[in-house]
Amino acid sequence: MNVGLWREPGRRLRANTGAVVALCILVILVAMALVGPWFSPNNMEALDWSHVAAWPGMAHAHWFGTDRLGRDLFVRTLDGARVSLAVGLVASVASLSVGVCYGAVAGYLGGRTDQLMMRILEILSGLPLIFFVIFLTVILGRSEMLLYVSIGAVGWLTMARIVRGRTLSIRQQEFIEAAIASGASTARIIIRHVVPNVLGPVIVYATLTVPQIILFESFLSFLGLGIQEPRASLGTLIAQGAGEMEAAPWILLVPGGFLALLLLSLNILGDGLRDALDVKEGG
Amino acid sequence: MTPLAASMPTLSMENLQVTYALAGGFSAAVRDVSLTVSSRECLGIVGESGCGKTQVFTAAMGLLSGNARASGSVRFDGREILGLAPHALNRIRGSELTMIFQDPMSALTPHLRIGVQLAEVLVTHRGFTWRDAMRAARFILERVRVPEAHRRLRQYPHELSGGMRQRVMIGMSLLCEPKLLIADEPTSALDVTVQAQIMDLLRAVRLEAAMAMVLISHDLGVVAGLADRIIVMYAGRVVEAAAAGELLRHAHHPYTDLLIKCVPNLRAARLERMPCLPGQAPGAAMQERGCAFAPRCPRATEQCRSERPLLRSVQRSAQVACHHPLSP
Amino acid sequence: MSGALLEVRNLSVNFGAFAALAEVNFGLSAGETVGLVGESGAGKSTLARALLRLIPAARGSVMWCGMDLLTCDAVVLRRQRRDLQMIFQDPLASLDPRMTVGGALAEPLEIFEPSLPAQARRLRTARMLQRVGLAPEAADRYPHEFSGGQCQRIGIARAMMLRPKLLVCDEPVSSLDVSIQGQIVNLLMDLQHEFGTAMLFISHNLAVVRHISHRILVMYLGRVVERAARDDLFQAPAHPYTRALLAAVPDPTRAPAPGAGVADQTLAAAVEPPPGGVVPSGCAFRHRCRHAQEICEHEVPQLEAVNERHAVACHRWRAIAGDA
Hints:
CATH architecture of chain A: Orthogonal Bundle
Largest interface: B-C, 51 and 51 residues
Strand content of chain B: 15-25%
Distance between the termini of chain A: 20 Å
Order of helices and strands of chain A: HHHHHHHHHH
Oligomer: heterotrimer
Structural class of chain B: alpha/beta
Largest sheet of chain A: none
Structural class of chain A: mainly alpha
Order of helices and strands of chain B: EEEHEEHEHHHHHEHEHEEHHHEE
Radius of gyration of chain A: 22 Å
């Protein structure tokens, strides 16, 4: 539907070297996370007693070394990355969908409905996140599903606010008035006219949210609230590595480095997207 | 081109060209425009949107955007100003050479009072003290017939109506007694009754101040009321230039003739169909085979489509760029 | 003349304390064009929007097909919109920038004729594009790729897709060059001739209104000050404001003598109303009127008949007509 409109921003993005490099790195990292483990003879849970806390090297087929229990770090890191990315993706999509719907409806309907919806939003934003997650964990026990829910429950708040702001300004524009005068229903106007016009900032914000979510997940897992043994996420790996920092630094550096690279490339790409799309929004 | 007065013209342009660098390539907004404005003369520039009439003067004033290039010569009072360094231009702009625009709201700073904005001009360009500048500001508001001038000085732009704001703009441009005032579509955004008042004001100001003026508009009716000479532009080029009375009585270029027919005349009988030009004006993209107006011209021939007509003199001080100009 | 299609009674709109529209009455018959003339602040756009219930009205009724548009159920109103279309002053802004031209034109069909297959929609879209003078290929392009005049054609095409009974035109040519305005006006006249659509044509430009209208309403600061058949208005204007409007349009056959003012003779003061300001008591025009007297300050003039096709709201119209 909108192919013609993305050509110019696409061109601008391609011209932005930083963003293109970031995109390439991102693609490589994701590819590694997805298919990397197949290349290694090791698997995630196998304990190699002969190579406990071994340095990274080619000789013993543990390319990134092993951890305190002899588990291969290469496979575990990539597995962890996969989990982190999955969380990031799923939680982003969830928060995006909920946030866009909530924000568009609040912004378009305006008046009391908007006031009410925004009050609810503000109350939810005011809740301290960590306590909320801990509370749920205590009540419902630890599970991966809980992780997704709690992260998603947080991510949509800012998205909703952004979408509402944008919807408020779009609502004033003449083509919305024209749609109303044509006899379009409220639902139709929101879906066909408001949402496509707020997508620009939404996409940008989404790419900047994914790193935040991954970081948050890592933090939760680091605290012991998220992914549990023997599954690994970058957060849990970093937690383990932190304890071994002096003796076996690679246990921290490998997952930490991977996470840092992932977040950096996502942020740079997000910035590049914003620059590419911004001019269009203004014009 | 023969200037009307024997003395040096206030503004003279030769072979002005303005091109823009765009993603796809280059586009020429102004192609080879030459004109002169003598002191005390009012030159009217007419043409449809996109013909380059505004760009000619934004280039002269050094106000072009970053991706535009201007070449040729623009002499103001004998001095070459095209390509002049910004600090040198700033001394001329706003004092000797001023411009007023279509939308006075965007030209006035919304958060400063009118008095301050006016006084600032004199303080910057003429070194007045603020007290003297404010007094001069009030005087100029009275001169442009703003009622209750002392009260207006303390108001903000949004508190004034469109016509009032345009008067303030005119006042601002007159503060330093300019040699040339360029008015770019000064009445297009105004109501018809206010338009008439602003035109009267410009007429009066011109007589009192004895300065040169350029009036740019897409509406020939507006220009006809004020200009001594009229230049008609199409697709970046001058297609006709003549004394105003002559041009209106009898146009040589078919485009001018059609433009004249489009000017509403409420005193004449009503026509069944409203006169207009067919199609639309070409964009600024590089084209150039034959006459740019040929696709819309009722008199176009094969020659018109293959060979671009050059500007040449017809009678006395009239010039036209057409292979088959209309004869009297 | 066929029965009234639309009847507006006592319509008033307030923006806070500001009376944007006060006690407006008029009727419109099938197939006729009523021109609505006035300058900024006259309330013309407010009237158009209040009529279509795009903004809320304080008082009054709009009778259409036996129902009051202002009080009927929202669902019923939406169904009526099929026959009550509008075109706007800024043609580009009235088109969704993210929708293709074809999509914009197909939308009315999707709303009101949802059972129509996609193929038929495409066909009707293509035919309507041709009817307004655009190539069918335009359907795949986006609004920003077109000029102002072309965008207005697209807007007209969209409005006419369902052959509405009434087309409200809010300053449709004001943002276009003088040389292009005629294209749009002539197109609208042709469409009226072909489809019998009635039109409410709003403009501050008398010349344009003169071409397209059968009857004309002149508005000033929220009220109708004169109402007449077209020729009556231009040949024998009764209200001082109408006279000022007519005098303000320059006569192209003569350049005025230096020093001669056009505006001075008709208007007493160089003051036009400030934006959103307080409407003067009595006759709103009295501060600018040469003929104002005491009664003008105290009493709001009501529309009185000059003859059966001509009415004016002025206390002094007889005296002024005698001067002419």
